[in-house]
Records
---
Amino acid sequence: MKYSMVMQMSCYEANFERLMWLIPGIQNMEGLALSEGRDLMDLQLEVVERCRYTLTIALTHYFRSDGVLVSDPYMKIRIYLDARVAEVLSYQNHRFQFLHPSPILNELNLCEKRQINKFLGEWLDYCISQGHGFLSEVRCTKA
């Protein structure tokens, strides 16, 4: 089944709504913020870039594995405040190319983008279900 642009935009809109639920005061946030949920893993939010109509954030879960702090997943997400949509820009530092000159590679790229944006929605649902959330008053700076 071909994935339509309408379905893609619906995913972006749903992710925007999830982010607004998780981070209701995002328009006022700066720097880093941490959330502790029932899953005992810190969820870290960083406002990476702020423009007139967009925000770019980095979102990651931190957990301990053999005494080492691991960030997984790690995503950079662009939030389009005026259009009320959000999309993944990179996952685990792998940046997605919007369009590729080769039709075959372009289709693979779009398929990968669809999958990772769907995963973002599932991850945000998990974070919300675990009681994660950020208040606009919570601000910290990088250490």
---
Amino acid sequence: MKEISIDELLGLPRDSYELIDIRDEELALYGMIPGALNINIDALEDNEKINRIPKNKKLVFYCQIGRRSREIEDLGSLDGRECLSLKEGYMGYVRSGILANGNNEEIQHKAEECIRKKFHKQLFTPFAKACKDYRLISDGDHIAVCISGGKDSILMAKLFQKIQRHKKVRFDLTFLVMDPGYNKENRALIESNAKALGIPVTIFESSIFDAVDTIEKNPCYICARMRRGYLYSKAKELGCNKIALGHHYDDVIETILMGMLYGAQIQTMMPKLHSIHFDGMELIRPMYLIREKDICAWRDHNELHFLQCACHFTDTCTTCHEDGTTSSKRLETKKLIAQLKKDNPTVESNIFNSIGNVNLDTVIGYKKNGVRYSFLDDYDVPER
């Protein structure tokens, strides 16, 4: 398929073409080019949405990096249509936009001002509550705020800056970015976003992308585990005692449900963990009570675009999940929760609260500190 660059596209009259995002729904939810339609590549054949687009309009398809849209095979639904592939895909659009995003002081002020006012209840209040309820921050802490370049970790950095200014607890921050082998454009995107938002990042390099490039089974899982190890190591070298990750409320409830449906186990994503391999180090998740929709609302309000995944597997394995699940399983779980919510508006909070309301008297077995227990162990022991 013939390609068209971002600059060429912007030179066309907007009513002369239709933008079609062929990525899966999870990536589309993460961010889309304004005005685009999301029609997954597998649903293009005989799609009613395609048929409703006037025949005189060009169809401009885009994926994450421009590979899959370029390789769209001949489809009956596209017969007689002028079809183009957006060069470098969504990531090309993001990179081209952020580098010319305007005055950094204005961008930073707007992003911080709306946290104080418009999104204070949705973002800062649950952030501060998680920090207090789960005792995530203590006097004298030096926290490595781990920034992947995505919306969650960037917002987490801004919330840490705000809570530090309150001075109720004295602690230090290092905004840590690991470059696992990004190309220069993706690294520039992270740097320019951080600069525009007033986040002084410390960047270090690793060769993780090269190391997992030839791994066929669960490359994203292995990549995520290696990333965490590198982050722990660098954070400890810099004098930090904690690393902070940007997992949010929706990550938590999806992980709970996926563990049951796909892993045959009941477990959750903990708000904090002691490191097993790095003495004195702890992992904290201060975004634990923040909803993803509110993170997206903050991002869109500020017209910000962020990096998601920029590895060699981007178009086929779109997100790096530490639990080893695929993007499709997480998306299936997200859809299931949304469907259940139609009949039960409290289903999300019920899933979240269930892990804190475990009744061991009604559990057949459980594991603690690596030791497995059965209800039969004390079944015949007389009650006192």
